[in-house]
Design brief:
heterodimer; A: 180 residues; alpha+beta; Alpha-Beta Plaits; three-stranded antiparallel beta sheet; two-stranded antiparallel sheet; B: 357 residues; mainly alpha; 14 helices; globular
Chain lengths: 180, 357
């Protein structure tokens, strides 16, 4: 414990000059300190490995959607942000969907989502992942309901470059969302 | 002879007109970049980067700021006194600009066979003129605050006025001590004396300190920016102002900073004298015109140092409380200035008496 001194100021201190000089030396020293600023749009701060951002619906290595619309993610979701409709795979669609059942509609309301990552943990098919992008702004509430076209990762067979980019830094996906 | 007195020297009129416009232009340019420098200095002292988007390193930021101020809607409150409301910022700007008339910016140029003095008017009451004009600066604040018909503005204006009037006293007393040494009120003579001898800051350190503190108060700069105390008075005396009328007030403050820096360098730091160099000898070596340019540059450097000092203090020292301000002004600075004056007089008499009692 430090006892605060409450002595009356001496005449020299009453001129405020020593205090001001001391303060000015401190501010002058700060002029040459390294600036902690990161120039945001040009440079971004790296996210931590466990960062939970926007969702991605994954494909397998042949470009087929992994999701089977089992609904476990929707059940796990504490904020009830996920809606889906299942459909049966028709003959001839084997190159599109990995298993017999797939999600015809898959929507996440990004305004409800709290990015807890429980959907990712619940998924038995490794179909949903949380990426390192955060939700871009939008003008309407409707714009925050992300459907399959926003969530699905690009096809690794048809668009290998976009897929690699999405895997790497997710920049391509963000811009496609922004252009909506 | 009689007719010669009546004829107007048109070349002189043109010469002075050009000089006046150049100095006004330079003052405005410097004031513009002072706003930029202020933001940069503030940022650097707070470990930030400051404006960096407009142009390389944010160099066009003042232009963007100015454009913004011009584009803003101009609002004149219906309950205000319209004429005074418009007059306020104009007066603030005018008084800020007028002070520059007696400051010698350099020795003289030899152009077109004429000796072009770099001082608009070398009047023999230079310092008194500065004091007169600076005192008029109160009216800009006071009229603006009064005409706004807003109690916060009025209170801020009264604070500002009382502060300026209080600190003018100490400033005047500090100057009297200097004038006893110089024996002249002409700024040019004062500079020439310093060129021959010492800078007066060495002879009058206490006087300089008092003058400096008072200059801060006169310019309404932190730690004496009571008329702009946001937390107590919203925005201060220019609360009701918008668009370029607000810009004029802000600009006038920066021009005041520039001019008072120039006056301080002139009175105490040798003005346009090149430090550590015998100007006359250098002039014989390189010619009068390069010498004058170099001298103007030296004055500019001194002014820049002072401007930086103004900003440095602003971003270090918190604002004084009103009673602290008045105590400092009346109970510390004025007695100190008087003591300084008496001591100076004592030593001058002693010197006249060849150091015998």
């Amino acid at each position: 414990m430090k006892v605060v001194e409450r002595k009356p100021m001496t005449l020299w201190e009453k001129t405020y000059l020593p205090g001001i000089a001391k303060g000015m030396l401190i501010t002058f020293g700060h002029m040459f300190k390294k600036k902690p600023t990161i120039n945001y749009p040009e440079k971004t701060r790296p996210f931590s490995a466990v960062f939970r951002g926007l969702h991605v619906l994954n494909r397998d290595e042949q470009g087929r959607e992994r999701c089977t619309a089992c609904g476990l993610c929707a059940v796990a979701c504490p904020s009830e942000a996920i809606t889906m409709e299942a459909a049966e795979r028709l003959p001839g669609e084997e190159n599109l969907y990995r298993e017999e059942k797939y999600a015809a509609k898959y929507e996440i309301n990004m305004l409800r989502c709290i990015f807890c990552g429980l959907c990712e943990e619940a998924c038995p098919k490794d179909a949903i992942y949380l990426s390192e992008t955060f939700t871009p702004s939008n003008f309407t509430r409707k714009g925050f309901i992300y459907g399959k076209e926003e969530l699905l990762i690009p096809d690794p067979v048809k668009e290998p470059e976009a897929y690699a980019k999405a895997r790497g830094e997710e920049a391509a996906r963000t811009s496609s969302v922004e252009s909506r | 002879m009689h007719s010669l007195l009546l004829t107007i020297d048109w070349v002189l009129v043109i010469e002075k007109a050009v000089l006046i416009s150049v100095i006004i232009g330079v003052s405005l340019l410097i004031a513009m970049y002072e706003t930029y420098a202020e933001r940069k200095v503030a940022a650097f002292m707070q470990d930030r980067r400051g404006p960096s988007r407009a142009g390389p390193g944010g160099i066009f930021q003042p232009l963007a700021d100015g454009l913004k101020l011009f584009m803003k809607e101009e609002i004149i409150p219906t309950s205000s006194n319209r004429m005074l409301f418009v007059l306020g910022p104009g007066l603030a700007m005018l008084t800020a600009m007028m002070t520059s008339a007696v400051v010698p910016w350099s020795s003289h140029f030899n152009l077109f066979g004429r000796e072009v003095s770099m001082q608009i008017a070398d009047i023999n009451i230079g310092i008194l003129y500065i004091f007169g004009v600076v005192s008029m600066g109160v009216y800009g604040v006071m009229i603006g605050g009064w005409a706004s018909n807003n109690k916060f503005s009025l209170m801020a204006a009264i604070r500002g006025a009382s502060q300026i009037i209080s600190y003018e006293l100490a400033m005047g007393l500090a100057i009297i001590a200097l004038l006893m040494i110089t024996g002249s009120l002409s700024l040019k003579t004062i500079v020439e004396q310093q060129q021959a001898g010492h800078y007066y800051v060495l002879l009058q350190p206490l006087g300089f300190l008092i003058f400096l503190v008072c200059a801060f108060a006169e310019c309404n700069r932190t730690p004496f920016d009571l008329s702009e105390a946001d937390s107590e008075l919203n925005m201060g005396f220019h609360q009701e102002y918008s668009s370029m009328k607000l810009g004029f007030y802000l600009f006038a403050e920066y021009i005041n900073v520039f001019i008072s820096s120039a006056v301080m360098s002139t009175l105490y730091f040798g003005g346009y004298d090149i430090p550590f160099v015998n100007d006359a000898a250098l002039g014989q070596h390189i010619g009068q015109n390069p010498l004058a340019a170099l001298q103007a540059f030296c004055l500019f450097l001194k002014v820049v140092c002072f401007i930086f000092f103004f900003m440095w203090v602003r971003w270090t020292v918190p604002r004084f409380r009103y009673d602290q301000l008045m105590n400092l002004g009346w109970k510390v600075l004025i007695p100190l200035a008087m003591a300084n004056m008496l001591a100076t007089g004592f030593f001058l008499l002693l010197k006249e008496n060849h150091w015998h009692f």
